[in-house]
Amino acid sequence: MADRYESRADAELLLRARRDPDAFIAVCRRHGEALQSWLRRELGDDRLAQEVLAETFAAAWIASGRFRDRGEGAAPWFHGIARNLVRRLRRQGAIESRARRRLGLPILEADSFEPVIDRLGAAQEFGPLSDEFERLPAEQREALELRVVEGMDYAEVGRRLRISPGAARARVFRALSTLRAEIGEQP
């Protein structure tokens, strides 16, 4: 596949992409590594960078018919899409933090949950779930399983549970807070 597309310009490949999805894949491969490196630096999180890269390519696929080459290829276009997604992600996080402050709720800090998440992962891998996990309210346990065990983002968890992403985040936060209080401090 690479040989067939290597000498073709991004604009030509994106034009062919609707009839030939491999052409779109070739453009993504051509620019994916540089874009992922930028996203890693920008977000400071490999997993989140991968998610945003996938969203970038999905958005580019949908908008591929609107691509206009200004002589620079698709790199600036991909970066523009990724920059907009990063901006939206940060704005959403800031809105959630402000709302939590106004409501008097603690700000979510993923690092404080790492020991709990590690223990949950170990429990899934090496044996039955802990009693503490089983005692969680069903809606919190289900949200936590989808987020931590299944690796879904909050939007996916919300869709699966038919609740908003914010409600999904709150359920996971409450579950992790309970577990941290019960098992997070143990050696």
Using the CA coordinates, give the radius of gyration.
Answer: 21 Å
What is the CATH top level name of the largest domain?
Mainly Alpha
Q: How many DSSP H or I helices? A: 10
Secondary structure category = mainly alpha
CATH architectural group of the largest domain: Orthogonal Bundle
Helix fraction bin = over 70%
Helix/strand order = HHHHHHHHHH
- Taking the alpha carbons of the first and last residues, their distance comes to 52 Å
- Return the average pLDDT rounded to an integer: 75
How many separate domains make up the residues?
2
Backbone shape? elongated
CATH superfamily placement of the largest domain: RNA polymerase sigma factor, region 2, helix turn helix motif
- Estimated share of beta-strand residues: under 5%
Biggest sheet statistics: none
Uncertain spans, ≥5 residues at pLDDT below 50?
110-129
